[in-house]
Structures are given as structure tokens and as C-alpha cells.
Amino acid sequence: MERKIDELIQQLTLEEKASLCGGASFWTTQAIERLDIPSIMMTDGPHGLRKQSGESDHLGLNQAVPATCFPTASALACSWDVELAGKVGGAIGEEAQAENVHIVLGPGVNIKRSPLCGRNFEYYSEDPVLAGDLAAAWVNGVQSQGVGTSVKHYAVNNQEYQRMSIDVQVDERTLREIYLAGFERVVKTALPWTVMCAYNKVNGILCAEHKELLSEILRDEWGFEGVVVSDWGAVDVRVNSLKAGLDLQMPGIGDSPVKAIMAAVNGGEMDETALDDAVRNSLRILFRAVEKHREGSTYDQKAHHALAREAAGECIVLLKNQDDILPLEKANLKKIAVIGAFAKTPRYQGGGSSHINPTQLDTAYDEILSLSGSDLAVGYADGYVIASDDVDDSLIDQARTVAESADLAVLFVGLPDRYESEGYDREHIRLPESHGRMIDAVCSVQNHVVVVLINGSPVSMEPWGEAVGAIIEGGLLGQAGGGAIADVLFGEVNPSGKLAETIPYQLSDTPSHLNFPGKKRKVQYREGVFVGYRYYDAKGMAVRYPFGFGLSYTTFDYSNLSVSKKEVVDTEGVEVNVIVKNTGAYYGKEIVQVYVRDIECREARPDKELKAFSKVGLDPGEEKTLTFHLGFRDFAYYEDQINDWYVETGDFDILVGRSSRDICLKETIAVSGTKVLKDTFDRHSTIGELMQDPEGMKAVGMIFGLLKSRSERKSEAVSDDMMQAMMRFAPLRTVMSWSKGAFNEEKLEELLKTLNQ
Ligand code: BGC
User: pLDDT digits over 139-152, tens only?
Assistant: First the structure.
């Protein structure tokens, strides 16, 4: 194939090559018929297919052909289930085949920096390991069907406010450890066909023109061999972006970029080999797409709907279940009240380019009716109007009346479409006032209240979080979400999801609060690596529900944590085993999380970081041993001094738990780093810095000796220890002035020479 591509490049004219660097239309690439170069089709988007048959747009305005709407990435992430993500990806791949789509524009791997980002529902997590592993599984699933993916939005696209112009100011270590790490996992492990560059700037440079991101990191470091495609309309100066490594400009915008590229090559501004490289990347994917396309294939809509229900069931997170109010025991109930317009008019996806036209849509109300059986009466009230935040007292009165006459009330509340969408951010994390007032009214007459939340990102639960008996985090569950909620309410499915992002008490608690969404077209990521639980845990701050948290109808016991070695070399890594047992009465699934803590480090590091996880299903009384492998990167941080990942020799805690705040088992191991970090010293280096280095320590001894020999100190008020402590922050240059000539410029120069050898 590579030979054929090279031959084709020889035969293409300059104009043809330039034309292959941009789309032919909104969703298709350029064909060159005389050389049998095909055109392929790309469409959105992460949780199902949005193939437009009529008018095209990238904001979800025009209708698309029917496709299965699976849970959004924010919900799927709560499943912590890589197998499931793969199955969902596989189903989307099948639908793409049936609709003659060659590349699906997803997944979105951006980190949730703030709960306000309007597009958080399209993203997985505040943690790059969770986001990266689930996205990689999804990519593998789609691509197993011979359909490509586009990992987006590369990179650091964490807000919608000024998303096309904002300049993200972020330091290298934060970039690597938090914002690129998820992309890196997907690129290295799942080999996506394409990566989509983001609209925003990173440290002053548009992503579309960011050579370091698009070429040096993505290709040279991570080994990416696919196509870098622009987000729709992200290219400014085509030649600059081509030089930086952006292969394909989308959508097609006519021949002006073609002319610009030709002029740059003819005028010697751009080497033709850069153009050839982009064309080579594109041709590879175009031919692969066409070769893998299965003309005339179909898919089973019913089976995909069933998968959407199964997936939704795995995503639901049970946050509170006081006195085991759930699952509903039909034998003990005569009547339940279902309240909230979302029960009959579901919100199941977000707005914008990912908006899907579902093949069918289940409502929670209908599904509750079908599971309730003939002996359980189900009352209903709207409680609020979805289209407005205004409080309608008559609807609240009706809700109160229905709730009062029932044994238990299930309330559906959450965020209407207008609250979260591509294109803009939320301004607060509260529920609409009408929803909050309705909850209060129902709680005033009913002691058994279950709240089902429908939302693409966290909402504050103040003040009602304490008052209600149970809280189900439903997220945006896709077209079969209504059935999945009913399944969990009645215990047909034991909830097994866990939070993929922390739920804070209030917006002002969030790590980016003082620097979101930025000013004057710049946003500073001043919280650094302390994003999500990395921040809350380092501060020991109370949160409403921590990262990784979720309840079950059964209970799990963790025991026998063991590590293969207590002393390890970073490159070899270590195997971690733990036994998990179902100690309750229901079949259930547990998500076991492995965190690593660097006990002492020369850099400020989070209290703990997620490094591995596994979801395991267990019958009552059953136990299983889970095995995890931790390697070099699991102990490393990104060290600016060497522009590379680095493990500092020392002790590390291996923490195994149910959530970031519920660590049940711990082992401490000694890790030896194989990379040597050699500090260089100069006249401004302090005594304290010298003390960190074995050679430097010797020099300190020498310096103290000199100082002592010249000291006339008689006073007992300053002991040797105090002297050392005080000297810790003294730069070498100042020592000269205290030594009365014993430590002079000559000695300093000599010392620096020895130390820096
Ligand atoms: C979005 C992308 C999407 C593209 C095409 C853009 O506005 O940011 O995520 O894939 O449009 O619809």
C-alpha cells in the first residue's frame, strides 16, 4: 500500500495534492477520479451517528437520519466499563457502515476542568486515565467495524466560552500530566485513524498551527500515523497549519486554500515534502476506509436499542440510599407517585453537533408503569414546565397532592436542554428554581422521596440533598435511559456506576473557580495539575460526593492486598493483587480503583492519582482476585528540567479503594528511578539545594567548617542545628560575605566546577 501511495503522489499534480488537503463538502473529502482516489464521509459524533441527509451544519440544527442514541460520554464514563465502551463503539461502527459513513467524529477526550463547561456531557472525566481508557476502548470498538474515529478536541479545549479564540495558558507539566495524558493513552493504545485539532490557542498558538502539539508530540513522540483533521472551521492560515502538521482542513471551503498552498510551494515558502506528507497521511486513511467499507450492510435497530438500555443501566450512579429505600419493594407499596416532566419528556442527550435523531425513545414513566405490575398504582404530576425556570404554583400544588396520597415519590429533576450545550457554558451549577421548589414541596408532605437526576454535568444538591431518602444520578442516558432508570428503581438492575467527576458542594469550591472562563481572550490554568479530586483530596476539602463514588444494593469487601515486590525498579513495575467479595444479598458489580501516592517528591504532587481500575461482577458470597500492573508511568511525573517523565526514587503508597475518599487497603513500596536528574548549581544555588545532592552535601560540610573556623560566636543562643536551619535558604554568593574571606570568588568557582562536572 505504501508503494502505491508513493506512486500516486508522483502522479498527482501540485493542484491535486493541495486539493486533497481540504474537504470537498461539509462532510466529505476530495476525490481525484482520474487516479481512482475516493472521497469518504465523516459525521458526528460521540454517542451515536448524526448523519445529515439534507442541509449540513455543525451545530445540530438540521435533522439527521435516525440512529441509536447511546448514553453520552459523561454517562458512559460512570460505567467505568471498558468492555461496554467497546461494545457501544462497535454498535456505532455498525451503524456507520450501514449509513455509508467512513469516519465517526469522536470520542471527546477533553478533561473536565470546570463543571461549567457546556460540553462536559460529551467528555468523560476529570481524570485522564479513566477518560483515556474508556475512549481507547470506544475507538477500538468503532474501528473493529472498519470505520475510523476522530479523537477530539486536541487539545486543552475545556470550555465553550470563546472556544474559537481563547488562549489557554498552561504550563508544560500540567499539559502533559492532565490535558494530554488521555489523548496519549488513546493514540498509543488504540491507533485512531484521525485526531481532530481544537479551535482554541495553547500558549499563544492556535491548535491548528501548533507544530509542537500536532507534529512533535503527536507524531514524533506518540507515533501517530493517521490524519490530523481540523475542527470544523478551526483553520486560520492554511499554509501555516499545513506546515505545523494539520493534514486535512474541514469543512471544504472552495479553492482558496488550494491556491494558497500552491503559491507557498511555488514561491519556496513551503517545502513540497510537507505537502506530500499530508497527502500521504490522507491517502492512507482514504484507501483504508474504502477497503473496509461494507456496501449494503445493515444493523439490528432492536438489538442496538437493547444495548443502549444495558449500557444506560451500567452508567447509573446510586448516590444515596438511606434505610435501603431502594430498590422498590412492590409487596410493601400500594401506590407510588412519579413527579417531574422529565419522566414523560426525557432529556437524554445534549445540544450541538452531537445531537442525534433517535430510532426510538423510551420514557421513564412508561417503563415504570410496565415494571410496576397491576397491584402497584402509579400517580403522576408534571411538577414544573421544562421550557421555563419560572415557578408554577399550581403545578407544585399538584405535585404535593400526588405525593401526599402515595407511599413514596420518585422525582425527576435536572437540567433542561438550554442549560448545557455546545457553544456556551453554564453560569452556575444550581437546578432550575422550579425543580428545587418542587422537591421542597414534596419533601414537606412525603418522607420517602427518591430523586432521579437528569443532567450532563454535576448540580449542587443544596439544600435538598440531606432531606431526600435516595438520589440516583441518571446523567444523560440516551434513548433507552427511561427503561434503565425503571430497571434500577425496581431492582431489575443493581446499580454499579461510579462518579467520573467529583460533585462539589458549591461552585466556589471548584479548583478552577478563580480562573474560569478567563478574561481578555486568555484563560490561565493556575490550579496546575490540581484538577478534580487531585485538588479536593490535596486540600482535604469536603465534597458532596467524591470521585469514584457510587453505591450498590449489595456490599463488597476488599482484602488481601499484595504486591509482587516491595522494592522495584521503575521500568520493571509491580503487580498488585486484591480480593473482592460480594458480602450482600444481590448479584452486583464493583468498580475497584487503584491509586498511587508519591509520599515525598521534589515537586508538588497530588495526594493520590488513579492509575488502574476494574469492574467485576460477583454473585452473593462470590469472591475474585483482581490483578493490576503498575509501570514506569504510574509512578512518574513530568519533570520540566529534563522535558520528560521522571520517577523520583523513594517510597510510594499503592492505595486500593471504592472511591478516591474510601481507600480500604494500602501497601508501601520502594521504587528506584532509573533516570538520573542532575541538578546544575550556580552562585544563586542555596545551601539547602546543595544538601539534596550527595556531592553538594560534602561541599556544605566544607563551607560550614570554614564558617566555623572564622566565627567569633560565643553565644549559646544559636546552636549548630539552628545555624544549619538558618543557612538553608542562603545562596552561595551571600556565604562569601559572611565568611570573612575564607570562602571567596575563587573558592566558589572551584566548587561550582566540581559540583557541575
Ligand atoms: C465541533 C466538533 C464537531 C464538528 C462537526 C464542531 O463545531 O466542535 O466536535 O465534530 O463541529 O460537526
Answer: 999 999 999 999 99
Q: Which three-class secondary structure state does DSSP give residue 286?
A: helix
What percent of the chain is predicted at pLDDT more than 70? 98
CA 690 to ligand 1 center in whole angstroms: 52
CA atoms within 13 A on the CB side of 372: 19
- Rounded (10°) angle between helices 694-710 and 745-755: 160
- Taking CA atoms only, the protein residue closest to ligand 1 atom 5 is 58
CB 226 within 8 A of CB 192: yes
- Strand partners for 103: 42, 148
Q: Which helix (H) or strand (E) holds 333?
A: none
Q: Which residues line ligand 1 (CB under 6 A)?
A: 44-45, 58, 105, 152, 231-232, 353
Task: List the strands of the sheet with 377-381, edge to edge.
Answer: 317-321, 470-473, 449-454, 408-414, 335-339, 377-381
* Beta partners for residue 668, in sequence order: 653
Please compute the mean of the pLDDT values over residues 461-484 and round it to a whole number: 97
Measured over the CA atoms of residue 86, residue 88, residue 94 and residue 95, the dihedral's sign is: negative
Q: Which of 158, 353, 424 to mutate to test the pocket of ligand 1 (most atoms within 8 A of CB)?
A: 353
Distance, CA 393 to ligand 1 centroid (Å)? 40
Which cell numbers hold the place of 689?
Answer: 539545594
The mean of the pLDDT values for the chain is 96
Averaged pLDDT, 342-351 = 96
The pLDDT of residue 22 is above 60 = yes
User: Kind of pairing, strands 662-672 and 148-154?
Assistant: unpaired
Could you give the CA distance from residue 302 to residue 738 in angstroms, rounded to a whole number?
Answer: 84
Q: Are 658 and 549 in contact (CB under 8 A)?
A: yes
For ligand 1, atom 8: residue with the closest CA: 231
- Residue 527, Cβ density class (10 Å: 0-12 exposed, 13-18 middle, ≥19 buried): buried
pLDDT for 712 equals: 63
> Does the pLDDT value for residue 649 go beyond 90?
yes
| Residue positions annotated with a catalytic role | 231
With 60 as the cut, is the pLDDT of residue 576 above it? yes
Instruction: Give the Å distances, CA to CA, from 38 to 10, 50, 442.
Output: 17, 22, 61
Q: How far apart are CA 184 and CA 636, in angstroms?
A: 15
* Residues linked to residue 545 through DSSP beta bridges, in sequence order: 503
Quick check: pTM over 0.90? yes
Average pLDDT in the 54-71 region? 84
What three-state secondary structure class fits 523?
A: strand
Where does residue 203 fall: left (phi above 0), alpha (psi -120 to 50 degrees), or beta otherwise?
A: left
Q: Could you tell me the sign of the dihedral formed by the alpha carbons of 150, 155, 161, 163, in that order?
A: negative
Q: Give per-residue pLDDT as tens, 512-565.
A: 999 999 999 999 999 999 999 999 999 999 999 999 999 999 999 999 999 999
Q: Closest ligand 1 atom to the C-alpha of 153?
A: 9
Ligand 1 atom closest to Cα of 60?
12
What is the C-alpha R_g of the chain?
A: 29
Residues contacting 353, CB < 8 A, separation 6+: 44, 45, 50, 58, 59, 60, 105, 232, 422
Residue 350 CB coordination number (10 Å): 28
**Cis ω for the linkage preceding 423 (within 30 of 0):** no
> What band does 110 get if pLDDT is binned at 50, 70 and 90?
very high
CB atoms within 10 A of CB 120: 32
CA 511 to ligand 1 centroid distance, Å: 27
Residue located via cell numbers 442549560: 419
